[in-house]
Amino acid sequence: MKEWMKRWLWSDWVMLCIRISWWITLVISLCILHERGLPIPLWAAMGLSFVPLFIPLWLQQYHLQWYLIAEIVLSGSFVIFLNLYGISNVWQYAPIVFVIGFLSSNPTYRWTAILSSGVIPFILGWVSKISWIDIIVDVILHYGIVFALGYAFQLAVLTHRQGQVIKEQNRILEQHVTQVEQMTLVEERNRLSKELHDTIGHTLTSLIMGMESLRQAATGDQTERIDALLRSARSGLEEVRTHLHQMSSSTLPASFTTSLQKLVSKFKDTTRIEVKYRTLGEEYAVPNPIKLTLYRCLQEALTNAARHGQATAIEVHLHFEANQLRLQIQDNGVGNEQLQPGFGLSTMKERLLELSGHLSVHSHRDEGTVVLCTVPRYEIVQSKIRLVIVDDQQLIVDSLSMILDNQEDLQVVGTAGNGKLAVELCEQVHPDVILMDVRMPEMDGIEALQVIKEKWPDLQVIVMSTFSDVEQAVTALQYGAVGYLLKSIQPKELIDTIRLIHAGGMSITQEIAEQVFEEMKQQRVQLKERGNIIWDNPYGLIKREFELLDLLHRGSRYKAIAASMNLSEGTIRNYISILYSKLGVNNRQDAVDKAKEEGLIS
């Protein structure tokens, strides 16, 4: 009951004071007029008076309708009892009728009005021996007015409360709109800087590399003209880089915790809601996209807690964990078990999914809401992805090297002009990912792929081709390639694909993906009909996919699989979709059954 009474408004305390005052008048009447003859001792009557005072109040915390019934029956019966012995008067019940009118809602006021201002007053007039006309014209009419006054007082309080809520929400919305405008400007500047980097920057880089190759074959005036063009292109590239640096400068402080602390402080000052902020774990560098996403998520969660949750206290915890960054926002608002994801929650979810993150919302009636935002940890400089580029066209090698080396998390550690040199280079530099052309002199990409996967099974190889070739893609995947891409791929898409594959994913150019899996399926059917197996792994599964099959067989959930493999849940879902496509199944159970049938798992 104590927790329930903490949520009372000033009007609830006024009603309590009216009930206590009413009880005091009854006690005084008992003390003064008990000589007129009570059927029970005074102390028993005094004890009985506590029943209509506390029982309805106790029931009110569970259900308002129970309170109304108890108030009418218990309080009305006690006043009728006192009127029978002339200790009270017919108007002693009026304060209770006012309280009942105030607490009656739209569905209940019909029967509460009839009972409290009609039936009980009629009985009071009858036991007090008042004439029928006076009971109807005087008593019932006046009790009806008292009930109407109580109900009108409730409407006035509700109107005032709604006005305050609207005023508070307007203030919060104004603050939210201002912050959204600032963050939208930052995000738009970052987006434009990335677009310029991926278009103009890469185009100028490719032009410079192309002119450098033409310069070697030029003579006389052609050399001077090419040199002038090169100087102009390099100057333009330098200007673009300068503008990119200026545009990508974030308005957020360098420290992520500082930026969130300032947001929380500003929110507290504006809304006067108590917000406690705490950082757990050792802070590490956070990339700008993650900073902006979690900053916006915190903005939205705080606004929702104030507007919809009616919270008076909020706790914000930022957890710096080994494999992920976790933001938790918990409030003490009204909560809602059937929470409908509106535009704000949907936007939060989409932002997090773009970073392979996850949004979780837990809300219960009268228990508040908990919002959890998690994003996998991205190491910026400390763990660069080591790349080797293998292609017999030097212009392509140089262009790819310059594009990929510009990324903070990518590093080209070597290049080779054919498959034989690529194998020798892998022994020296130990790369994480290889970008491999197919057609090359001495040893082509498919031959090199077989040798590399035999020597280094965990090394990830992406086969790149000028034209789509389904048969070539199928062969590459069967020999262990984890990607098949066209050289015409957009630079941004290539960069994202390299990151995905390094995280344990797989990628096949969309132009031929369905054809590749269909071809592999037909080959498996033909092999099964012949009753022989040409290679040990007819489904082209890689080592990680075998591990994934084993975890699915054990019944592990996606979240547990992601934790065990140190990958995000989004990457696991993507990886499982590719696994299902390779096996030709649609769900977990079919995949496990197929793997058992084919002897892929024991």
Number of helices: 21
Number of strands: 11
Q: Main β-sheet: number of strands, strand sense, barrel status?
A: 6 strands, parallel
Order of strands across the biggest sheet?
A: 7-6-8-9-10-11
Beta-strand residue fraction: 5-15%
The low-pLDDT segments are 249-253
Radius of gyration from the CA trace?
38 Å
Which class of secondary structure composition applies to the elements? alpha/beta
Helix content: 55-70%
Specify the oligomeric state.
Answer: single chain
Query: What is the overall pLDDT average?
Result: 77
Overall shape: it is elongated
Q: N-to-C terminal Cα separation, in Å?
A: 59 Å
Task: Provide a compact summary of the structure.
The protein contains 21 helices and eleven strands. It is of the alpha/beta class and 602 residues long. Helix 2 (10-33) packs antiparallel against helix 5, helix 7 (132-215) runs antiparallel to helix 10 and helix 9 (256-271) packs parallel to helix 10 (288-307).
Describe the structure.
The chain has helices at residues 2-6, 10-33, 42-60, 64-84, 94-103, 109-127, 132-215, 221-247, 256-271, 288-307, 343-354, 394-405, 419-429, 445-455, 470-478, 491-502, 513-530, 543-553, 558-565, 569-583, 588-598, and strands at 274-280, 313-320, 324-331, 358-364, 368-376, 385-390, 410-416, 433-437, 460-465, 483-486, 507-508. By secondary structure, it is an alpha/beta fold. The strands form 2 sheets. Strands 7-6-8-9-10-11 form a 6-stranded parallel sheet, with helices on both faces. It has a 5-stranded mixed sheet with strand order 1-2-3-5-4. Helix 15 links the parallel strand 9 and strand 10. The protein starts with a helix and ends with a helix.
